[in-house]
Amino acid sequence: MTSSPITTSVSDLFKVGPGPSSSHTIGPMKAAFDFRQRLAQLQADVQQQADSLHVHLYGSLSATGKGHGTDRAVVAGLLGWQPETTDPDELLKLLRDASVTYPVPVGERIIQVGVPEIHFERKRYDSPYANTMVLKLQSGEQTLAEEEYYSIGGGFIIRKGEPETAADPRSVPYPYSTMTELKAQLTMYNLSLDDVLMANEMAITRRSRAEVNQRIDQILEFMHKAVRRGLRHKGILPGSIKLSRKAPILFQQAKGMSQSSDSFLIFLNAYCLAASEENAAGGIVVTAPTSGASGVIPGLTFLAKHHFHYDRATLRAGMLAAAAIGFLVKHNASISGAEMGCMGEVGTASAMGAAFLTRCSQGIVDISPIEASAEIAIEHHLGMTCDPIGGYVQIPCIERNAMGAVKAYNAYLLATSGAASFQKISLDAVIKVMKATGRDMSTKYKETSEAGLALSATEC
Predict the structure, then answer these.
(1) Is 277:230 a contact under the CB 8 Å cutoff?
(2) How far apart are CA 301 and CA 284, in angstroms?
(3) What DSSP state is assigned to residue 151?
(4) pTM of the prediction?
(5) Serine dehydratase beta chain domain: which residues (predicted)?
(6) Orientation angle between helical segments 179-189 and 367-379, nearest 10 degrees
(7) Beta bridge partners of 136
(8) CB 155 within 8 Å of CB 286
(9) Torsion angle, CA of 33/38/40/42, rounded to 10 degrees?
(10) Structural domains present in the chain
């Protein structure tokens, strides 16, 4: 084992919560909620001294946080809200009136938090991650309690100072950290990919097989609810861009072109845009693996269910295969747009979607075309920038989800053409290239809205 084994669960990767950004909305909400919990554990004499609470946002959280609703997400977390149970309409109401403050309990005291207490810092901050937030409980100028959090993509957060203990390989029955090691486990134990992924998921979550399957079904239902809502909702998306929703129009076009060979692609585009537009509107979506890429997998799974008519068991197996690819990218590179650009978000989602389609199409499970399809999809997203106009997850993000799904479908076709063994580049190799590319990419192109398409804002 070259590094600690992957111990991320399907539920961790596919999180349910409000859009528009897992790193800017879900992550900060979870961090603020964690800080609230820690304040409740302070000694009573410390709590009694408190008179203010301040939130400092750095890096991409500062540069594009307004457009992503990071300030609202932080307030929601401090109020005790959790991503999966948040009412998106109530979330959008927070901070709408700059004069309104919100009560945060600190022991027996109530500290009011509002717009003046949330600081979008423009200065550089010495931090190991692009998305950093510092929360402070103060008495005048004195800091009584302070925590630093990093939002690392997909709604995952790290608290500074938390011991980073290596995962115990015995915590999963079939440990792996790379695709090479995963394939070695299949060979060593003569097991299918489905068997290994399910066994590990049961061990990580301590759920039964039936409970794991039930959770995957729930995740798919959340995804498909987002698609269905997006197909119904018309009008203008929130924000200064005033972007019109397109999904309902495309869906009607596709239904009117049922005899055309193009209808298939138009349906797929409509489904992906529908979920992405719901994300942009702050609706409840599923990180797949991020909120910014939350249209690819929902669009493809909706297509697989309603057009290919795959049964539940097949969809679940496809979701496990998709998760395995997401695990590998997160473990060996990053799924954060602030770290990798959009190749970390839509690129990973496209690879996951390709693996999903490939697994669903198989009678006898063969991991070679699954690996090949994921590799092809990532390969053709390398270097993709994250340059949202105005900091909103709208242009180019919404259409980019549809394009990522189409690439996923083509990667699946190429990988299942009978030539998967001809692939010269392994998935492990392309993930290494992805990490290096992200490291070399200018920060201007990584979720800061300082370059690329983001500079076209004046034309909107």
Answers:
(1) yes
(2) 17
(3) E
(4) 0.91
(5) 9-161
(6) 180
(7) 54, 146
(8) no
(9) -160
(10) 21-159 (3.30.1330.90), 169-459 (no CATH)
Token couple for 336: 């954060």
Q: 367-379 and 427-440 helices cross at what angle (nearest 10)?
A: 20
Residues 81 and 307: their CA atoms lie apart, in Å, by 37
Per-residue model confidence as pLDDT tens for the chain (460 residues): 557 999 999 999 999 999 999 999 999 999 999 999 999 999 999 999 999 999 999 998 998 888 889 999 999 999 999 999 999 999 999 999 999 999 999 999 999 999 999 999 988 888 888 899 999 999 999 999 999 999 999 999 999 988 654 445 558 999 999 999 999 999 999 999 999 999 999 999 999 999 999 999 999 999 999 999 999 999 999 999 999 999 999 999 999 987 888 899 999 999 999 999 999 999 999 999 999 999 999 999 999 999 999 999 999 999 999 999 999 999 999 999 999 999 999 999 999 999 999 999 998 889 999 999 999 999 999 999 999 998 899 999 999 999 999 999 999 999 998 877 788 999 999 999 999 999 999 999 998 888 999 888 655 5
- CA-nearest of 51, 11, 14, 54 to 35 is 54
User: Six-digit token pair at 393?
Assistant: 């997850």
